[in-house]
Amino acid sequence: MKKPQFIVAAPTSNAGKTSLTLGLLRACKNRGIDIQPFKSGPDYIDPMFHQLACHKTGINLDLFMMEQAHLKANYTHCMQVPEVACIEGVMGLFDGSIKAEGSTASLAKLLDIPVILVVDAHAVAYSVAPLLYGFKNFDPGLNLAGVVFNRVNSESHYRFLTDACHDVGIAPLGRLPFLSHCEIPSRHLGLSIDQLPQYDGAIDEFAKAVEQHVPIDPLLDLCMRPIEPLQTTPPPPLVSTMKIAVARDDAFNFCYQQNIDAFRQLGKIVFFSPLHDSALPTADLVYLPGGYPECHLQELAANDAMQQNIKEYVEASGRIFAECGGMMYLGKSIIDETGKTFKMTGVFDFSTSMLPKKLKMGYRRIYMNGTELKGHEFHYSTIINDENITTIGRIGNARNQKVDSQLYKYKNVLASYIHFYLGETSQLQHLLSTI
Question: Which of 1, 180, 228, 369 is the most buried (most CB within 10 A)?
Answer without folding.
Answer: 228
